[in-house]
Amino acid sequence: MSGEIRDAIEEITIESECTNNNDGHFQSMKKIFTCELCNVQVTSNNVLRRHKEGRKHILRVERQGKTFQCDLCNIVANSQSQLDAHLKSSKHNARLIKKENANQMMKKGVWIIIFGIICIFVNLLLLFKYINNVV
Ligand SMILES: [Zn+2]
Ligand SMILES: [Zn+2]
Question: Nearest ligand to the C-alpha of residue 85?
């Protein structure tokens, strides 16, 4: 029981130490640099620069950039509503239909080629059989 209480007291002291440290830290610094994208606050420009070179930040930038992008038309919109308007536009739908048609054509093309190869193979087989019979 006493151990549990000691643990609890230690937890409280650690917590209060942390908050005191943080408050003192931010109050003593004149400038706070923030990355609004990641909601990160740092106390020096160097740290901010390092943060912006980091993978976490770059990933966020990329993800944000892709939010308003139409990969199909290779178009970047300024806002979600603009992208929505584009996705509903006839221009985008025409591209979408074109792409689907192209995919279907590709599938058909592949099957025609496979069928052609099988035909040639069967013909060759019959030809060899015929030659063997004759000889
Ligand atoms: Zn960031
Ligand atoms: Zn589009």
Answer: 2
Per-residue pLDDT of the chain (135 residues; tens, 9 = 90+): 555 555 554 554 444 444 444 554 545 546 899 998 889 999 999 999 999 999 999 888 877 755 688 889 988 887 888 889 999 999 999 999 999 999 999 999 999 999 999 999 999 999 999 998 876
Q: What angle do CA 75, 79, 80 make, to 5 degrees?
A: 90
Q: How many angstroms is it from 25 CA to the middle of ligand 1?
A: 21
Ligand 2 midpoint to CA 97 (Å): 11
**Structural tokens at position 130:** 């015929």
CB proximity list for 77: less than 8 A, separation 6 or greater: 68, 69, 70, 83, 86
pTM of the shown model: 0.37
Residue bearing tokens 């087989």: 125
Radius of gyration for the chain, computed over Cα atoms and rounded to the nearest angstrom: 33
The residue with tokens 């006493």 is: 2
